[in-house]
Amino acid sequence: MRPTGIELLQAMPVFGGIRDDALLRLLDPSRERAVRSGECFFRERDPADSMFVLRSGRVAVVRTRHGQDYVLQRLGAGDCFGEMALMDLAPRSATVVAEEDCTAIEIGMGDLLHLYEHDPAQFALIQMNIGREVCRRLRAVDDLLFRERMDDSPIAAEILFRPAPSR
What is the pLDDT of residues 87-124, one digit of tens each? Predict the structure, then answer.
């Protein structure tokens, strides 16, 4: 049996501790999006104003460097992606491509604004949870880069010790 939107969100760290009524208010204006295998939810450098909660299927998070695609991670039902867009308003940092037919809940900036207008405390908790999730991922990458640097990896050295651009 497929979980309801509320059950799906409640199982995710980003929506941990959020009341049912607040989740309903968030889900009410949200959209369900279907993406066929091989198609993209979004591409690297696209404008960004929403996150996705994967209901079904699998996706690959991909970055491109020198014309070569690299899979950063694979996600399945119950995972979210694109949440940085709700915090930094910057273009997409990666491409997310469906490896199977997928359905996802798309939660946009407007959906969060709708929640903010009715319950600022619950809105703030979601923002804090997104911040925690992004920090958790950053710590994992920092650890990986540090371990690679300690192994004298030339790739990690290039990433970690690249000179800052001149001003």
Answer: 888 999 999 999 999 999 999 999 999 999 999 999 99
- Please check whether residue 31 is in contact with residue 105, taking contact to mean a CB–CB distance below 8 angstroms: yes
Q: What pTM was computed for the model?
A: 0.81
Q: Which of 97, 69, 68, 90 is nearest to 134 (CA)?
A: 90
Note the pLDDT tens digit of each residue in 62-77. 998 888 888 988 999 9
Outline where DSSP puts E strands in 49-157.
50-56, 58-65, 68-76, 80-81, 95-98, 102-108
**Segment (H or E) for 35:** strand 31-35
Domains defined along the chain, listed by start: 5-160 (2.60.120.10)
Q: Which two tokens stand for residue 38?
A: 């091989």
3 state DSSP class of 146: helix
Cα–Cα dist 122/113, whole Å: 11
Q: Which two tokens stand for residue 48?
A: 């960004």
